[in-house]
What does this fold into?
Amino acid sequence: MANTESAKKRIRSSARKWERNRRFRSAARTHIKKTRQLIEQGNLEEAKEMAQVAVSTLDKAARKGIVHPNNASRRKSRLMKALADAQA
It folds into this structure.
């Protein structure tokens, strides 16, 4: 357990950051999963809309430093490729 005040404060602040980061990561995963399910079901119009939401969420997470920008870019690329393949 932490002894100094600064160490205790760091524990509190990192817990807040962990919770915020967890929410963003979870939301991004959920949107990606929903998009992939819609693609598999053949609902391409809904999938296109959900893909935009997923891309927006990934961009926001990358901008805030929650995921690495290259990681977000890779996920967006794979998602959009899956959507394009389904439309073809």
Remarks:
- DSSP finds three helices and no strands in the chain.
- The helical segments are 5-41, 44-63, 69-87.
- The longest helix spans residues 5-41.
- The two ends are 57 Å apart (CA to CA).
